[in-house]
């Protein structure tokens, strides 16, 4: 009986078109790429090169003859979302915004400068200040992971339109 349910579930998932998300692939023009990140202390500087490598790119430090992925703007921080009756912030939104652009080895624009913004909302409870700090740290880490994936997906989309 359990076997029949399992087989039926797998058939239904296959029939509805469900499939696991595949690894992103960078376009051919960006297979050898140099990163120019405005703030080298960000986690993008640490997390993006291995993600690009998994997507089929080779990240190099060579100044000439390679494509360039520029991230001139990268900001991550909380903004007040709502204020309570006592004029204290009750909800925040964690906002991660980057601007990216890519040029190929010849200097032609592969992807014009564009913005990617990710947000997550969370509540602030004054009685749980330590918990809120931990929650904020978790949101930052989650947004940073999601931003790397969003950049890869944007690069993949550029490759499909060329």
UniProtKB/TrEMBL annotation:
Residues spanning the signal sequence: 1-24
Topology term for the membrane: Lipid-anchor
Record-linked InterPro entries: LPS_assembly_LptE (IPR007485)
A GO CC term assigned to this protein in UniProt: cell outer membrane
Broad class of the protein's primary localization: membrane
Gene Ontology terms, MF aspect: lipopolysaccharide binding
Localization terms from the record: Cell outer membrane
Membrane-spanning intervals of the chain: none
Alphabetized PROSITE patterns for the sequence: PROKAR_LIPOPROTEIN (PS51257)
Keyword Hydrolase carried by entry: no
One example of a Gene Ontology biological process annotation: Gram-negative-bacterium-type cell outer membrane assembly
Keywords: Cell outer membrane, Lipoprotein, Membrane, Palmitate, Signal
Pfam family for this entry, one: LptE
Top-level taxonomic group: Bacteria
Matching Gene3D superfamilies: Lipoprotein like domain (3.30.160.150)
Function: Together with LptD, is involved in the assembly of lipopolysaccharide (LPS) at the surface of the outer membrane. Required for the proper assembly of LptD. Binds LPS and may serve as the LPS recognition site at the outer membrane.
Family: Belongs to the LptE lipoprotein family.
Subunit relationships: Component of the lipopolysaccharide transport and assembly complex. Interacts with LptD.
HAMAP family: LPS_assembly_LptE
Listed PANTHER family: LPS-ASSEMBLY LIPOPROTEIN LPTE
Name listed for the protein in its UniProt record: LPS-assembly lipoprotein LptE
């Amino acid at each position: 009986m359990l076997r029949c349910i399992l087989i039926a579930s797998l058939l239904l998932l296959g029939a509805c078109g469900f499939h696991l998300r595949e690894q992103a692939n960078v376009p051919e023009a960006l297979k050898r790429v140099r990163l120019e990140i405005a703030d080298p202390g960000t986690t993008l500087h640490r997390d993006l090169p291995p993600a690009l490598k998994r997507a089929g790119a080779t990240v190099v430090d060579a100044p000439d003859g390679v494509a360039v992925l520029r991230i001139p703007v990268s900001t991550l921080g909380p903004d007040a979302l709502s204020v309570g009756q006592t004029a204290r912030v009750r909800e925040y939104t964690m906002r991660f915004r980057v601007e990216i652009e890519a040029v190929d080895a010849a200097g032609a624009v592969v992807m014009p400068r564009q913005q990617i913004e990710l947000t997550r909302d969370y509540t602030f409870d004054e009685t749980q200040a330590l918990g809120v700090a931990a929650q904020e740290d978790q949101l930052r880490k989650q947004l940073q992971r999601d931003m790397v994936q969003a950049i890869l997906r944007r690069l993949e989309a550029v490759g499909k339109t060329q």
